[in-house]
Amino acid sequence: MEQTLSNALKTTLDELQTTFGEKVLQIHHPSGDTHVRVHPDALISIAEWLHEKGYIYISDVIGTDRYQSSDRFEVLYNLLSLRAKQRLFLVVWLPEEDPNVASVTSVWPAANWYEREVYDMFGIRFEGHPDLRRMYMPEDYAYYPLRKEFPLLGIPGSIELPGTTPESD
Amino acid sequence: MKQTDISSRTESTFFKKHQERLYKSLEDKHTTVEEVDVDDPLNSKMILNMGPQHPATHGVLRLVLELKGESILKTKLDIGYLHRGVEKIAENKTYQEFMPYTDRMDYLSPYNNNVALCTAVEKIADVDVPERAHYIRMIGCELARISSHLLWLGTMVMDAGAVSFFIWTFKEREKIYDIMDQLTGHRFTVSHARIGGVVNDITPEAMSYIREFVETFPAQLKEYHKLLDRNRIFFDRNENVGVLTTEDALRLGAKGPVLRGSGYAMDIRKLEPYARYDQVEFDIPTRLEGDNLARYYVRMEEMHESIRILQQCLEKLPKGSVRADNAKKAYPSKDEVYYSMEGMIHDFMMTDTGICPPEGAQVYHAVESPKGELGYFIQSDGTGHPWRLKVSAPSLANLQILENILDGEMIADTVVVIGGIDPVMGEADK
């Protein structure tokens, strides 16, 4: 698939690389999208910089389990610049042991529920999140269902279910 | 007896930790701006659990409201009652096998969901779709949009107090179901799109159904306008209720008609045109007020625009095949399957292994569903199953808006505001 980048995007990416230097780890274009992988330490400063450059709208936060020995988890922030009509994915890779990353809710408040969903499904903690509760599963649940080691059929007995008959007492 | 914190007043029997944290979170909301109210002699503050089983919450939505008299102080939403884990299921299915699950996500407009999945897979696996299939998809999508908006209209007006109106809109929806029956073979969960095209061509009978609908529906819309546009009760219930400013809408990530009702003309059909939306003419209806009435106008005008798109599609509908003629990437036609050995082998391979995008490929593709931007993110590991499939559901984004705009409203307005947001829990809960 041929790559045709708009001028606006090119300038943004060049400026990003000159401003943040080594913190920008990788820029690639799978299927015509733009993925910018950055160092987790610099996430907030890069997020604020992008917000200033017009990426004011966040569509989604996506978590994935890469299932590799180093940098197991991946979090993608789906950003949209409404002025330049341009989508950009900000990517961070996180380690398997105690995965945590700074929350971007201070930059994009809409990330609140999206980050909760990633936390619920992968157990990635977002530091500084105002209300980090599970999104879909109950708080009492001990597992993170979208991790690759979680079985498709679930874990028997892991969730308390109501009785099918009314209680007699 | 004076009790100030919520958890001492509630007694949960089920999922104790979950309920505790939910009530705690409700208590903590806005604590920086709110003064601690120690004097409440009449005990007028109360916690109201609305849902998950409540006729006006459009499914299994649970709202926990802290009330003072009749006005809402704070709101927290609890969702997940319809969580089926479709993303986990997707990782264990081939791309085509996953299609019926998408029907059951936004079950009010299954066609859009099918198209969203298919276009994403076509983008990642580089499949070409014939021109005619694109137009058939657009016809299906716009019909589904009208059908979804009709259900919203009926239930929202019912929430505002007019029960008989629901039957009127369902009369029209029934016609769309009949069209879907003719077009796809199913009335409700259609699964009509296929990777590389659609299942079958439009039959002459389906064509006549669609033409008749396109001709008669505008008159019906006019009737709806006549009933509601000058209706004092409807106005008073909706005007200045659930106001969302443009800045807040963008900040909090509103999608679809909710964002457009708040004054920002964003539509994926214009922003990142898919199918052949760049070859038809239509406008993006937008309102500036940001209240429930604005959302009503936006959706009503969107139905007009859908009819416009449908007319152009019917005019332009090109001739040709409806599925890619590439047996490695799309299902062969039934003629080939029944009368040639290769056709049968390919059909078997498509069902067994399915289409395999290159290893390490990833894609995000969004369509404009009736609720807003519906995106599919797919990561491939080179096999016939997606490594990771993520659905960006517009209803989830709009429910987050709901949690923010309900604060300060009256309790009687909650149902109308939920109606105006138009969430579908099947999609929000995944």
Category from helices, strands and their pairing of chain B? mainly alpha
Mean pLDDT of chain A: 86
For the secondary structure, the number of strands of chain B is 8
* Whole-angstrom Rg of chain B: 23 Å
**Overall strand count of chain A:** 7
Biggest β-sheet of chain A: count, sense, barrel?
A: 5 strands, mixed
Task: Kindly describe this structure.
The complex is a heterodimer of chains A (169) and B (430). Chain A is of the alpha/beta class. Chain A is built from three helices and seven strands. Chain A starts with 6 loop residues before the first helix and ends in a 42-residue tail after the last strand. The mean pLDDT of chain A is 86. In chain A, the strands form two sheets. In chain A, strands 1-2-5-4-3 form a five-stranded mixed beta sheet. In chain A, helix 3 (111-122) links the parallel strand 6 (100-102) and strand 7. With 430 residues, chain B is mainly alpha-helical. Helices cover 48% and strands 11% of the residues of chain B. In chain B, the strands form three sheets. A three-stranded antiparallel beta sheet of chain B has the order 1-2-3. Chain B has a three-stranded antiparallel beta sheet with strand order 6-7-8. In chain B, strands 4-5 form a two-stranded antiparallel ribbon. The two termini of chain B are 43 Å apart. Chains A and B meet through strand 3 and helix 3 of A and helix 1, helix 2, strand 6, strand 7 and strand 8 of B.
Quick description:
With 169 residues, chain A is α/β, with parallel strands linked by helices. Chain A has 3 helices and 7 strands, in the order αββαββββαβ. The termini of chain A are far apart.
Jot down its keywords.
heterodimer; A: 169 residues; alpha/beta; 5-stranded mixed beta sheet; two-stranded parallel sheet; elongated; B: 430 residues; mainly alpha; 3-stranded antiparallel beta sheet
